[in-house]
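Running this now, will post back.
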Amino acid sequence: MIEDPALKWSSHPVKKKTVVSILVVLFLLVIWLVVYVTTSSILLTGLAVIIMLGSMSSFFLPTIYELDQKKVRIKFFLTKREREWSSFRSFYVDKNGVLLSPFAGRSRLENFRGVYVRFSRNKDQVVDFVRSKIEERKDS
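Update: finished.
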């Protein structure tokens, strides 16, 4: 049985800042035009489109976050990641989200082994919930 999430929201950066989104799309169009003009190849231009859209997919596609009492769930495109709260030992907040780290202190590996949870006008709620779950583990 799946537990009801204590917090659930969607983050879709392309919708958040219209001007930035327009500039990003214009930049991509210019890059693709340059690739086509310099190579005269539809195939290479198509490859450039696929690679660049793939690398920027987290900007263009929505991500759904669910935090409950036991797990963190992240649903993105065709993938779903779940991690137990017990796998996190610290967290770091920035202006866009919170990094849940498996390390007690700072580590260069935390960006690869941790989980980044992006805010969507709910920063205080998310930080309070994460703090309660991480500190609950430290007290145990």
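The helical segments are 13-16, 18-39, 42-55, 57-60, 110-113, 123-139. More later if anyone needs it.
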